[in-house]
Every structure is written in structure tokens, then in C-alpha cells.
Design brief:
The complex is a heterodimer of chains A (277) and B (315). By secondary structure, chain A is an all-alpha fold. Helix content of chain A is 76%, strand content 0%. The relative contact order of chain A is 0.13. By secondary structure, chain B is an alpha/beta fold. Chain B contains ten helices and 14 strands. In chain B, helix 3 crosses helix 4 (119-132). Classes of the chains: A mainly alpha (277), B alpha/beta (315). The A-B interface holds A 3-4, 6-9, 17-18, 21-22, 24-25, 28-29, 32-33, 36-37, 95-96, 98-101, 103-111, 114, 264, 267-270, 272-273, 276-277 and B 17-18, 54, 58, 61-65, 83-84, 86-91, 95-102, 106, 109-111, 113-118, 121, 125, 142-143, 158, 162-163, 165, 195.
């Protein structure tokens, strides 16, 4: 056997190991970056903490009932969890853009699924930390029970938030590979746009009718509907979690395809090289 | 040459970059470049800035899609079978950059994982490359704090992670101190000698090309103008012989007007006269200098170096 055969993956088991190793490469890099860069600490603690405190205080000022407080603070958690998790997915491409090392990544036999799922895993971990932190602050400062909707419902809600984050993160990566650094701000802007349409601090019924049609196409709308049902709000949709997951999976496939197409286009236009100079 | 002996075969590659929304701008980078590189060879791509060297290299390395033409690496098509050949090639460039907070071992471990290396094999390969490129004393230094030379050595180490059969080096010694450049050239030569790696490199340094490359292609305006071994190219591009003289008194007027003199360059008491044929013109020049009462203290005849060939072709 040639000494070059080291990274070959002939057997099925080898192939699965290869998949896992490539996938965890991105998780490994995101974790190192999270440990060494102070802005990660802000993402994880400062902004979610500030959001929870300011929204909690707002509910106090407005003298909202515990049920209405839950309605608002669930939205606050959703925004922070989705934001933190989708940023990790976007970092799979953004780190390479900021360090001008894009071409090295795409020179390797790596697939979109590796960079997406690897960085998403870290995003899920960080999202859970954000949720826990917000649960502690919300519970201690405002007496809000974050498990009040039931553990199962909360688990489904968080999973839904993280799947939404995966979709948004993949779309951000695709935008950056289509338009370069000009699209960088979408990493922070996109999530706010989607949560606004999902009924983040209000029922989507208050939105104009034509916007409600768009809202009905966003998975987070269903996940918010599902968890709020656990706090006693009548659900707007039948089987909100099932619908949300079905939509999420469809969008994950579409966003994956969009990113793959963006990579191919950037190889055609030369943007992939420009982002490495 | 049988196709199985070829590491790289490119035919009629063309690429135009388009930019701008309202006012479209087009930059033609390659206009039908073809080349064949034998397995185990070091092949040099030389040319002025904007000649198309990096574009050609990037197409071969599967980073860029050509508008026209075909290319195969180790028998695999670079467009249709890009994923399959990425395991067997790698690339390092002179202006390489990696994620700022990662340390050398972490950079190698990250890319090693992308090549499917893991566990003990990954650790052993990373340690071996850190040792080989003398990066071990810098294990605690983050990438953005490494010197240019160390960054360059790390880029080369990264490029060897998967033991590539074909290695692309885009100006590997760009901007480096002479001693670091010499060391890196030595490492490139060792790589071919010890592992039989096919290396395709672009460079601006003729000396580097002359020292390392078995064959060289001159590229300009997106076209390959000439190709051959360094000696073949010097013969192929007949730009004459150089007669170097040390004279007393220095630089007589009128030497450039002698028959067969193509170019005369004087520096103090030394003069370099490029002539169409040294064998034919040397006696005539010496005779003329005697007539001018000029004493010839030293005389050497040499072939033009690759740099002169390059200047001639780039004109």
C-alpha cells in the first residue's frame, strides 16, 4: 500500500468515521475561537442577559399578568437562542472571510453538510447555554418559570429554534458567497427580520394580512405558537410543532442546496479566490 | 507520452472575469492555455503580474471553473471530478492566511480533519510537519502573531497534510528573507526527491525557477508563449550571448555600433555586451578595443540567464 493512502476511506465504517471527523473539524474550530475571542463571551452572556433584563423590566412596568409575561419572554429567548446558534453556522464561512483563508477550506474534500452540521453542533450547545442563562435570570428576577410549558414542549421549542437557526445560518453563508463581504451584515440582520415576521413579541394576528401569509411560511412562527400554547394561549395552528419541523426540514434542504449553488457560482465568478486575497 | 505518466494535462483553458452591475467590465485572464506535466516533475509557471499564472493554477486546483477547455489531474477531470481529486492535491500560496486565533498545531489539526485524518494518525502527522518546518518552538503563538516566514512555513506544512500527489505552490517564497527563501526552496526540492510529489509552482524569481524546475512555461496575456527546460528555453529564445569585459580605460564610445552588438551595458570599468554570436563577434570586439588603445583586463563569455529570457519574452 502506498504511504499516501492515509486519508483514504474505503470501507463503510471508514467513510462514516471520515464524515464525523470532517463534521467535528468545524465544531473544533468554533470551540477554539469561542474560547479565545471576547466577542463570543458577549454573544453568550451580555446580549442575552441585557435582553432578558430589559424585557423583564418592561413587563413589570406594563404590569403584565404572568401569562402575558411568559408570552413576551418566550419571544426574548427565541430571538437570543436563534441568533447565537445561527451565528455559529455563519462563522463556518465568516471566519474564513475575515481571515482571507476561504480557498483552503474548499480545496479539501469537504462538503456543505460538514461545515453546516459541524458548526451547528456548537451553535446548539451555545444556544442551550443562552437558554439556561436566560432561564436563571428570568426565574430569579421576574419569577418566570421557563419549564412551565412542560419539558417536552420546551425541548421541541428549542430544537425548532435551532433548526430555524441552521436555515438562517446556511442562507447567510450563501449570501456571503454570492456577494462577498457586502453581505456580511446579513449575519446579524437576517435573524431579526425573520423573528419580526414570526410574531416574536406579539401574535401574528396583529400583522397586516399579506404579512401573515409570509409568517405562515416561517417555521419559528409555529414553534412560538406551540410553546405559547403550553402557557395557556390558544394555538393559532393545528399541530404547530409538526408543521414547524416539516417546514424546517424542507428549508434545511433548500438552504443546503442554495449554499452549494453559491459555492459553485463563486468558483465560476472567482469570488472564492477574491475572498482569499 | 502515455496519459498514465502525466500528472496534469490541460487543453485550451480560457477564463474571463466579469465584474460590475451597470457597467460590466471584463478581464480576460486566460486565452487558451495548454500544458502537460509529467508525474514527479517540478514545473514552473513564469510570467509578469496579471499574466494568468494564478488563474491557471486555481483552475487546476479546482478552485475556479474555466469558461472553456479541459484539464485533468491524475486522470480526473477538474470540473466533473473535483471532489475525488481534492484528496490527492493541495496548495500553498505566498500570501496564505489562516484563522487568526488558531495556533500552528490547531491550524494543521483543523485542515487535517478536513482531509479525514483523525486520532493518532492526525497527531503524528501534525507533529511530524511541525518538526519538519521548525514550527515546534512556536506552538503557543497564535497565527496572527507569527512572522511572515513562519506563516509561510505553516502554509507549506498545511499543504503537505494529505501527502498530496500533486502540489500547487503559488509564489511560495514571495516577500521572504533570502535565508528563509533558500530553506523553503530546499524543502520543495526534498519533497520531490523524497516523496515523488509533482509540483507546479508560479514564481517571479528566475533563480528559483532555474534552480528547482525541470520544465518551465512562460505565460503572458493569458497565453503560454514558450515551454521547455531552462536550457531549452535559453536556446529556443535566441537573444544572443553575453560578453562581459573589464576594461582600462572604461567604456569606450562606439562599442554599441559594432556589427552584431545587440545591447551594451556599462558599469564602471565593467561592460556587458550582448551579441548575436560570441564565437563570431568576440575576435572582432577584441581587435576593435586594441585599435582604441583599450586594455582588456578580463573577458568572460556566458549564455543569457533565465531572467534575460524572461525580459525578452515579457517585452
Amino acid at each position: 500500500m502506498s504511504s499516501r493512502a492515509e486519508p483514504m476511506e474505503d470501507g463503510l465504517a471508514d467513510r462514516w468515521i471520515g464524515e464525523w471527523v470532517r463534521l467535528t473539524a468545524f465544531a473544533y474550530r468554533n470551540l477554539i475561537m469561542a474560547r479565545r475571542n471576547v466577542f463570543f463571551v458577549f454573544e453568550l452572556t451580555f446580549w442575552p442577559g441585557v435582553a432578558m433584563l430589559s424585557h423583564g423590566l418592561l413587563t413589570r412596568f406594563l404590569d403584565l399578568t404572568p401569562q402575558m409575561t411568559a408570552f413576551i419572554l418566550v419571544g426574548t429567548v427565541a430571538l437570543s437562542a436563534v441568533q447565537v446558534c445561527q451565528l455559529d453556522v455563519a462563522y463556518a464561512v465568516l471566519f474564513d472571510i475575515w481571515s482571507k483563508s476561504m480557498k483552503h477550506q474548499f480545496l479539501t474534500p469537504v462538503r456543505i453538510r460538514h461545515l453546516a452540521l459541524g458548526s451547528w453542533l456548537v451553535g446548539v450547545g451555545r444556544g442551550v447555554v443562552v437558554w439556561a442563562l436566560m432561564a436563571i435570570i428570568g426565574g430569579r428576577a421576574f419569577g418566570f418559570d421557563f419549564l412551565g410549558a412542560g419539558v417536552g414542549r420546551v425541548t421541541l421549542f428549542l430544537l425548532g429554534c435551532f433548526l430555524t437557526a441552521l436555515v438562517i445560518g446556511l442562507l447567510v453563508c450563501a449570501l456571503v458567497l454570492l456577494w462577498g463581504t457586502r453581505a456580511e451584515t446579513s449575519a446579524w440582520a437576517a435573524v431579526n427580520f425573520f423573528v419580526m415576521l414570526s410574531g416574536i413579541y406579539y401574535p401574528i394576528a396583529v400583522l397586516p394580512a399579506w404579512v401573515q401569509v409570509i409568517s405562515a411560511g416561517i417555521p419559528l412562527t409555529y414553534f412560538l405558537d406551540g410553546i405559547r400554547a403550553g402557557y395557556g394561549f390558544p394555538p393559532r395552528f393545528g399541530h404547530p410543532f409538526a408543521t414547524g419541523f416539516a417546514l424546517s426540514l424542507l428549508y434545511v434542504v433548500l438552504a443546503h442546496w442554495a449554499l452549494a449553488a453559491a459555492v459553485t457560482r463563486s468558483r465560476r465568478t472567482g469570488l472564492l479566490l477574491k475572498l482569499s486575497e | 507520452m502515455p496519459a498514465s505518466l502525466l500528472a496534469v494535462e490541460a487543453h485550451d483553458l480560457a477564463k474571463t472575469f466579469r465584474s460590475g452591475w451597470l457597467r460590466r467590465r471584463e478581464t480576460v485572464a486566460l486565452r487558451g492555455a495548454s500544458l502537460r506535466v509529467e508525474r514527479g516533475a517540478i514545473f514552473g509557471l513564469l510570467g509578469p503580474n496579471g499574466a494568468g499564472k494564478t488563474t491557471l493554477l486555481s483552475i487546476l486546483a479546482t478552485l475556479l471553473l474555466p469558461d472553456r477547455g479541459t484539464a485533468t489531474i491524475l486522470g480526473h477531470d477538474v470540473v466533473r471530478e473535483a471532489h475525488a481529486i481534492r484528496r490527492r492535491l493541495n496548495m500553498a500560496s505566498g500570501n496564505a492566511s489562516f484563522v487568526w486565533s488558531l495556533r500552528p498545531a490547531e491550524v494543521l489539526a483543523f485542515y487535517g480533519r478536513l482531509y479525514g485524518l483523525h486520532g493518532r494518525a492526525l497527531r503524528a502527522r501534525v507533529d511530524e510537519l511541525l518538526e519538519r518546518f521548525e514550527l515546534t518552538p512556536h506552538l503557543k503563538t497564535e497565527y496572527n502573531e507569527l512572522s511572515t516566514g513562519l506563516k509561510q512555513r505553516l502554509a507549506l506544512a498545511k499543504a503537505l497534510l494529505n501527502r498530496p500527489e500533486v502540489l500547487f505552490l503559488d509564489e511560495p517564497t514571495l516577500g521572504l528573507d533570502p535565508d528563509v527563501s533558500i530553506r523553503i526552496r530546499g524543502q520543495i526540492a526534498d519533497l520531490r526527491r523524497q516523496e515523488g510529489t509533482t509540483i507546479i509552482l508560479t514564481t517571479h524569481y528566475m533563480r528559483e525557477a532555474e534552480e528547482l524546475c525541470d520544465r518551465i512555461a512562460f505565460i503572458k496575456g493569458g497565453r503560454i508563449l514558450a515551454e521547455g527546460s531552462p536550457d531549452e528555453l535559453k536556446r529556443q529564445i535566441r537573444i544572443g550571448d553575453v560578453i562581459a569585459l573589464r576594461l582600462d580605460p572604461a567604456a569606450p564610445v562606439g562599442l554599441a555600433d559594432l556589427a552584431g552588438a545587440l545591447h551594451v551595458q556599462a558599469r564602471g570599468d565593467r561592460i556587458e555586451c550582448t551579441v548575436d554570436s560570441a564565437e563570431k563577434r568576440l575576435p572582432e570586439i577584441l581587435r576593435w578595443l586594441v585599435e582604441q588603445n583599450v586594455l582588456v583586463r578580463d573577458c568572460q563569455v556566458r549564455e543569457p540567464d533565465l531572467e534575460e529570457v524572461f525580459v525578452e519574452l515579457a517585452r
